Amino acid sequence: MTTAHPLASEWELDPASVYLNHGSFGPSPRSVRQAREAWSRQLELQPMRHFCRELEVELDRASEVVAKLLRTQTDRLVLLDNATFAMNVVAASTPLNPGDEVLLTDHEYGAVRNIWQARCRATGARTAAVTLPFPPDPAAAVAAITAALKPETRLLVVSHVTSATACILPIRDICHAARQKGVPVCVDGPHALAMLDLNLDSLGCDYYCGSGHKWLCGPFGSGFLWVHPRRRDAIQTPIVSWGGSIAGRPASWKDSLQWLGTRDAAPLLALADAVRFFSPDVIAEYRSWSHTLIRAARERLLQIPEVSAFCTPAENDFVSMAAVELPQTAGWKPGYHGHPDSLQIQLRDQHGIEVLTGSWSGRRFLRLSAHLYNTSQQLELCTTAVADILQQERHAAK
Ligand SMILES: Cc1ncc(COP(=O)(O)O)c(C=O)c1O
Fold first, then answer.
1. Which atom of ligand 1 is nearest to the CA of 84?
2. First-to-last CA distance in the chain?
3. Which terminus of the chain is less hemmed in, N or C, by CB atoms within 10 Å?
4. How far is the CA of 112 from the centre of ligand 1 (A)?
5. 262-282 confidence digits (pLDDT tens)
């Protein structure tokens, strides 16, 4: 694996960087970038034709291709810019009153927490966070969530694959437990696409929010919201525009979300090309290549003094992304959005390596991601640099 994967030439990453943060922002292969550019050209060629006659038909076609991958029907799916947008739609569509509660887990993504805190502030409701057992053993995670669901819980918001901690949660069992208590579930799923086999119709959730730019390598600015038919009538848009079909088609629950003012929908249309690129064979290849790289890198990291397994103690607990816990050397300050941990800055500035480090629940972590364009050499560069920097930190702290 020191040699590149045969498909690595599909990506054109800056050779000055070692890119190990696909989990935050995942670049696209050539065919996807070309498709997006072609759709933008098509718009510029004849805007009236594209916006008024072509766009809705093409969005339907693209969402049919995406729906097949997600094992669902296109009338349950609307293509949107990203999971953040989708989550905002769910927030706008969830009626809340003073005294109501929205339950999240302590592993939820910061921006998602912000969305629900803002929605609760505006309605007099409140958010609550259930602490999952650490590391989150599946049965214990389901039990903790079940115990935290109260009569006033109006929605459970839970990640399929968590962000900082990179753990895969037993989402089907969680949905089942919530349904037994009559609580709707919104799954935050950007990392699950391509990383896991999805079958949205059988999950038992009410909403599923996804981003195309992560493991599926879709264009930046592509994502989706999946809505169970029982929730369709309640869907509200957080961005108000015309609210109807621009082509004059019969009304659909998706209308208010598809025309959000004049904008280039090329990333949404080219999301279908990411699905075409990731045939079942290529998905299997991505999973096995990335897992091999991450597994070996994680083992090397775990040999560094005071580095320990985080939320994914066993090799089968992760696919293409894993996090380890780092020592909190004297003088270490927790990083946060826009102000990364000093290790992340040193890796970037001194070694040209991009990874995610940060703090979660008072713990310091490093999260590694790998995709088809990465090599074992790159991961070795990273783990060696991490060992060196942590050793320097230890010396400096003495
Ligand atoms: C678990 C989780 N939810 C939501 C998001 C937001 O995704 P996006 O920025 O594509 O909207 C992320 C992004 O990293 C994430 O990891």
1. 11
2. 38
3. C
4. 8
5. 999 999 999 999 999 999 999
